[in-house]
Amino acid sequence: MLLLGYMLLIIGALAAAFTTSLDPATLPWGYYAVAMVVGAVGLVMVKRHQHLVAHDPEQLEENLGQLNDALGRIVMEAEQLVDRRHELPVHEYRFEIDRLFRADLNQFAEARYSIRHSCGVQVFADVMSPFAAGERYINRIWSASADGYLEEANTYLVRALEQFREARAKLTAALATVAVKTSY
Amino acid sequence: MKQTDTVVRHGPYPELTLPAVLVGYFLGAIIAISIGYAALILGFSIEGSELAAILGFAVLRGMLGRHSIVENNVTQTVASAVNGASSGMMFSVPALFILGYTDFDPVLLTFGCIAGAFLGIAFIIPLRKQMIDYERLTYPGGVAVATILKSPGAGVQKAKLLVGAAAVAALVHFGSQMGGVDNWDLGALIGLPEYMNGVWYLSLLTVGVGFIAGRGGIAFILGGFVCYWLLAPLLSGFDLLPLDAAGNPVTLPNALRVDLFRPVGIGMLIGGALMGIALALPLIISAIRSMQSAAVSKSVVSKDEMPIKLLYIAIVAAAILLAVMSILSTEHMGLGRGLLMAVMGTLWIWIAGVILSEAIGRTNWSPLSGMTLIAVTILIIIAKGLGDAEAVIAAVTLGAAVCVAMSQATDLMLDLKTGYLVGATPKMQQMGQFLGAWLGPLLVIGLIMVLHEAYGLGSEKLPAPQGQALASMISGILGGDIPTEKYLAGAGIGALLSALSGGLGITVGLGFYLPFNIVLTYALGTLLRELCDRYKGDAYSESVGIPIAAGLIVGEALIGVGFAVSYVMEGL
Hints:
A: mainly alpha, Four Helix Bundle (Hemerythrin (Met), subunit A), B: mainly alpha, about 75% helix, globular
């Protein structure tokens, strides 16, 4: 169904584009409308398939599990870095950040739409807001480290941890709701 | 130790400081005048963020002995905010002079542009959260500037890659400019039909942009290839190519673009954006709710953002200002028509702001001229009852304000992406943008008036190609020559594609809209990124590819501005 849907969508869009290029001034609206209907049918088929896949309980559970794991590791690494902050020279922070956080931050970001599919737009926004703030703070620590601003780096290390904890708390709460829903 | 600078500094990390703003004003004024003047000769504008970042770097770190990446980011934000008026006004205002409608109020126009600039900035407040925090759009130009700003701490190796690539791009661009060779017609060499447009734009900047955008730019490339490698051969195969006055088929790629593909592309941009807005509306509302709840709980994050109330105040205040400006723009405007123009202008700023932010976020290309054309078309249609002269003056006066608003919105989104990557505070950047936005219109209108007095806009000395293009389009609109059917049909296709994936209609439409030589060269960057990711890994692309790509952008941009400065010097 997915392949057929994509084919209809692409054929419809290309055919509609072709009708628009037949004449600089006018347009054969009948042919255009047929092409657009073909495209729209394809769109509905693709969307239905995407909806089914996005809401597949097993797939969702796997994706949400990955998200939860990545965020859990980010929080853990941030906690450990906060504990080590008085031992670590400020100029080393940025190398630690690149080593400890980048992969998990990227993994979380790539899988983020699973939250939207399973928990809705508002929960997605509620989780992504502190996550993005945490990532931005991590980037600020990197900059402060490069410039040697010790207090700034330490202050934002604590703030980043708070944001990641908030994101994890909101994700955990949302996952619990999903688990309750799917258990019925 | 992995780093050379081991000085530990105490106290607050400098960000929005007086030196940052003053240096931003200074650099912004130089860049706006240089690029503005060059735009009147060359016909295109240059994004000033990279230059502002490098010059700010030199002044703040080299001359003033300051050490703060985020302060440098604010300087670059202020400078590019000043320059934002340059591209916005240079496209629109010269059209009035070229058409001979010089009976407009320059003071009103200037304050209208300032109001428009503030409105464009305010509209970006919730879009920042949606497009940068949630959607995580790439913004290749923003990534390039962040790479420059972070270069002192990124290690010697990355700095070498950045500088080396910048030098190569600068040399290539210098050579191509001096030799007058901007393009390479590979298609003719291998016997490709003319309509298939096998001309490559000789620009390493474009390759760098394609590399940084990566897969985000694939839809843009597809849009271009559909036009010239699918539709054009089909039209030729079925003898359906349009005919010229002599009855011969039109095979010139630019003629096909202007007559057939670009109007559909503009429609796709609009339809794609409207569908994108409809689909993203729940997310934008969630972003606003999230900001409101953070403000109520007075969380740390809420202090990072401009208060959302400012958005509402700015919308009302700027809409009132635009209404006043519209009503006063011509003698017979009247209250009702003036209000309608202001409301349509305000609405269009938001819709076009979304289109431009999406387009520049995914590909680094901003269809500002197309969006201005639509704005002016809508405004002329509303004002048509006033007679040609008054309709054009009112539409271009308000259109200039709308154009500056759109320009500010896209510039700020790029800067906010840079800010995200270096950890800047959005509120500080937004304040920096507000602080810089008022200066540009004053400088640029002064520049336009002086240059027109000295040489005459539209003359051989100052051809103002963008203004001429808008002037000819205005003449077409007044004569009823608006490709409405193509806009509508394009809008349907754009909406269909954006319904599949948010932003898809806009990026494919951009491929229809832009010249194919840019698309071809851009595709090379995308291909290199794909190969790099596949065979060397993502980490290699990030640590080696991105600094090189950023260097390519910086080197060519610097030479572009260098030529602009040389034009200014020649003109003195």
